[in-house]
Amino acid sequence: MDLFIWLFLLIVFLCWLSGWVVSARFRTVPKLAPGAPKPFVKVSVIIPARDEEENLGRLLPSLEEQDFTAHEIIVVNDQSTDNTAGLASENGARVINGEALPSGWYGKPWACQQGADAATGDWLLFLDADTVLEPGGLLRIAELSSDPASVHSICPYHRVENGYEQLSAFFNVIMILGMNAFTLKGSKAERVGLFGQALFISREQYDRVEGHKPVKQEVLENFHLSRFLTAAGYTCRCYLGRGTIWMRMFPTHLGDLVAGWSKGFVSGADNTPKSALIGISIWLSGLIMSVVALTFIPLASGAALLGILGLYLLGVIQSLYLFKNAGSFWIAGAIFFPIGLAFYQGVFFRALRRRKEGGAVQWKGRDVT
Predict the structure, then answer these.
(1) N or C: which end of the chain has fewer CB within 10 A?
(2) Confidence (pLDDT) at 364
(3) In 10 A of CB 349, how many CB atoms?
(4) Which candidate, 188, 183, 172, 338, places its Cα nearest to that of 265?
(5) Minimal CA–CA distance to 117: which of 16, 24, 205, 211?
(6) In angstroms, how far is CA 133 from the centroid of its own chain?
């Protein structure tokens, strides 16, 4: 029995190592050197907003407090039913009342396209309304324009407060790893994706791929847009947002969290490069197996018992590292990672089943199936 346990633990350990392979090159947006001149670039900030009155109350003031001034701030009021337009105007943004959704378009790509059509800057910074810029964050992003051969995207640091929000941990981490940008190969990996929450792209790059038109009916438009940009010869670069930009995704209730992650994760799995998907799957399998190994405790001798407990501890340490890079997740979430992992699996397979059965997935009153 001990031999079987040790073989099982060896497999778990190898799976654990795969988690480090897919996360080997975590990086944040570089800081400017002390005394370095500010970049001379016109940045148009474009914010698609549908019923985002509360979120804009945080994002727009953070933009106004930056030590780098945006060329313009455009809020595309996407058929909102609240005071999104009024609040945006009060905070000095240029408000564009979005036109009705044309046939064949999803809401966010259409809003982004309208904002880009109205923008006059050299570079376009698309921001989700639930993001907030840290002090100096816009300057750090603007400095990325010094690399005009690349398109840049940032995954905001996820600030979580309520207990149920801790259940986003695995979704956050897998979203980050699914970009395939943080493996040992870095930006040279195949089919590197782009984060949709904060996308920094030059006007030249955007126009060359015809903007959001090629991805007009995609839930994860950023994932698909990266393919067109790569085909056009640009490098897709991804960063983690800690110190630059943060987000609060689902502050209302658990139902929003489930709906929000459901709308994109099945599609994301479909479009994740095979190498990244395999690496993530092996890592998750190892975590599951480390939990299964706990059931062997009554059958294990001293050394095997220590091996079982040691591998679970390694899973905790790895989870803590990944969670803390993604957001302000509690240490308890890493210690009891099987709870978050089971929740992730449940939501993912529920969404997968609903899609196979033809069930609709709704987000903000629109069908995004």
Answers:
(1) N
(2) 55
(3) 11
(4) 172
(5) 211
(6) 16
Q: What is the pLDDT of residues 227-283, one digit of tens each?
A: 999 999 999 999 999 999 999 888 888 988 888 888 766 666 666 788 888 999 999
pTM, entire model: 0.90
Identify the H or E element spanning 335.
helix 331-335
pLDDT of residue 156: 97
Nearest CA among 246, 141, 236, 128 for reference residue 182: 236
pLDDT at 159: 95
What is the reported pLDDT for 360? 57
- Token digits of residue 40: 């001379």
Nearest-CA neighbor of 65 among 100, 92, 29, 38? 92
The pLDDT value given to residue 358: 66
Yes or no: say if 46 and 125 are a contact pair by the CB < 8 Å rule: yes
**Three-state SS at 272:** coil
Look at residue 361 in the predicted model and tell me its pLDDT: 55
Give phi and psi for 362, each to the nearest 5. Answer: -105, 145
pLDDT at site 185: 85
pLDDT value at position 36? 82
| Cross-strand pairs, 124 | 44, 201
Beta-carbon contacts of 22 under 8 Å, excluding residues fewer than 6 positions away, are: 177, 182, 183, 276, 279, 280, 283
pLDDT < 50 positions in the chain: 363
- Residue 341 CA, distance from chain mean position: 18
Angle at 156 between CA 151 and CA 157, to 5 degrees: 145
Cβ neighbours of residue 45 under 8 Å, at least 6 residues apart?
63, 70, 72, 73, 74, 125, 127
Query: Vertex 182, ends 178 and 188: CA angle to 5°?
Result: 100
Task: Give CA–CA dist 87/94, Å, rounded.
Answer: 11
Could you tell me if 91 and 56 are in contact, meaning their C-beta atoms sit under 8 angstroms apart? yes
Per the prediction, the chain carries an average pLDDT of 91
Q: Do 46 and 74 meet the contact criterion of CB atoms below 8 Å apart?
A: yes
Both tokens of 251, joined, read 């502050």
> Across-strand partners of 154?
239
**Alpha carbon distances (Å) from 19 to 117, 186, 342:** 41, 15, 18
